[in-house]
Amino acid sequence: MVSWIISRLVVLIFGTLYPAYYSYKAVKSKDIKEYVKWMMYWIIFALFTTAETFTDIFLCWFPFYYELKIAFVAWLLSPYTKGSSLLYRKFVHPTLSSKEKEIDDCLVQAKDRSYDALVHFGKRGLNVAATAAVMAASKGQGALSERLRSFSMQDLTTIRGDGTPAPSSPPPPGSGRASGKHGQPKMSRSASESAGSSGTA
């Protein structure tokens, strides 16, 4: 754990910040020699960082692994060993020079494919968004129509209640008997009158 922390600090301070500051000075002074020197270092350091991502996973158990990383960064930066310039001139530059055309073609193809894929997925995303918007609008319109229909039914019931007479309520239970008692003398009187008229005739 301590070795890992020390190696990260060394790589951060001496492998990144220190070269970045001297690269700034080389750009500011417009010294071509220093500029080329630090450009070669950054190319080697980029390859080192890429390889470090995998070696930290598979080789971290190796004895003195982090100490070797510290020694490698120091070897790259040392003005006596000139490790970055040596690696660049002996290995990186010849390899890139021989494979430069193939690498450029692969980059162009990857760029075209990524652009086509971006356009394709962009169109699909727009279609999905448009479909979702139409479905949401249709659902909202259906809910609005149902709401308006419920309001119209309430209004119709209110108008009916105001304009038409209320239905007659059934008579109370005792009203039939009372009407029967009052109606019987009227029936006998009319019968007697009809009998009297027939007798005089």
UniProtKB/TrEMBL annotation:
Q: How does it sit in the membrane?
A: Multi-pass membrane protein
What keywords are annotated for this sequence in UniProt? Answer: Membrane, Receptor, Transmembrane, Transmembrane helix
Q: Where is the composition biased (Low complexity)?
A: 188-201
Top-rank taxon, per record: Eukaryota
GO cellular component term of the entry, any: endoplasmic reticulum tubular network
One GO MF annotation is:
olfactory receptor binding
Q: Name one Pfam family in it.
A: TB2_DP1_HVA22
Enumerate the subcellular locations listed in this protein's record, separating them with semicolons.
Answer: Membrane
Give the record's family classification: Belongs to the DP1 family.
- What protein name is recorded for this chain? Receptor expression-enhancing protein
What organism does this protein naturally occur in? Vulpes vulpes (Red fox)
Q: What is the lineage of its organism?
A: Eukaryota, Metazoa, Chordata, Craniata, Vertebrata
